[in-house]
Design goal:
CATH topology of the largest domain: Muramoyl-pentapeptide Carboxypeptidase, domain 2
Number of domains: 2
Distance between the termini: 65 Å
CATH superfamily of the largest domain: Trafficking protein particle complex subunit 3
Helix content: 40-55%
Strand content: 15-25%
Strand order of the largest sheet: 4-5-7-6
Largest sheet: 4 strands, antiparallel
Structural class: alpha+beta
Number of strands: 7
Length: 222
């Protein structure tokens, strides 16, 4: 029996493929070879293991011009892959609390819990951002996310930043409890000290979660 070790979103060969698929969505082997700078044999070996673990799926679309190349994507399990065991444990615990509260008819308990979590998350996020401006805090936030396996892109306009996160540490939980998306948006807004709007979510079939962030800080006046 072959035993596979669960890969991490790191710089290992398997980790690089997982991060590539997380960012690009769907790739053929030829594209992976070009982007990663490795051989077809190396890519195929890693893909075989990732498919066996249920983290990657393969499909092909016939175009009538011969055998089409296989296209590889992250599976639902792969999309929810966490970079830290403690993160996964926290998600399991939260899901259990929300599920039990809903089953018992405690309608206010989940909402109160999420409010407390939003506040706690904002404090935790703020610890990663010690900059004095929105731009500095956003840069520090992106660095922290990438250390945890979340690939990010930041686009800048005259008065806003648009942050795209290719990956979500709460993916599995958010599928069952969509309010987690609002929780993260609120926590990020408080930590950055600037208005934040969720533009798109992976839950809607988009390639990444996208946040619009105003450059002007939140008003401190009532």
């Amino acid at each position: 029996m072959t035993v596979y070790t669960a890969p991490q979103l790191d710089d290992s060969p398997a980790g690089k493929i997982l991060k590539l698929l997380r960012q690009h969505g769907a790739c053929a082997i030829k594209e992976m070879v070009e982007l990663l700078g490795v051989t077809q044999t190396a890519v195929r070996q890693q893909l075989a293991a990732l498919i066996a673990q249920g983290l990657v799926t393969a499909s092909s679309v016939c175009d009538g011009r011969g055998r089409p190349p296989a296209i590889y994507r992250l599976s639902e399990k792969g999309k929810g892959l966490s970079t830290r065991l403690s993160d996964r444990l926290a998600l399991i615990l939260l899901e259990e609390v929300l599920t039990q509260d809903a089953a018992s008819g405690a309608s206010k308990a989940p909402q109160n819990l999420l409010q407390r979590l939003s506040l706690g998350m904002s404090h935790h996020y703020a610890e990663q951002m010690c900059g004095s401006t929105v731009a500095e805090r956003l840069q520090q936030w992106v660095g922290w996310l990438e250390q945890h396996g979340i690939i990010c892109e930041v686009a800048e306009d005259s008065d806003v930043y648009v942050l795209t996160e290719y990956g979500c540490p709460y993916y599995g939980l958010a599928q069952q409890h969509r309010e987690v998306c609002r929780l993260e948006t609120e926590a990020l807004e408080h930590a950055l000290g600037a208005p934040v709007t969720l533009l798109q979510s992976q839950l809607d079939g988009r390639q990444g979660c996208q946040f619009l962030m105003r450059k002007n800080p939140l008003s401190t006046t009532s």
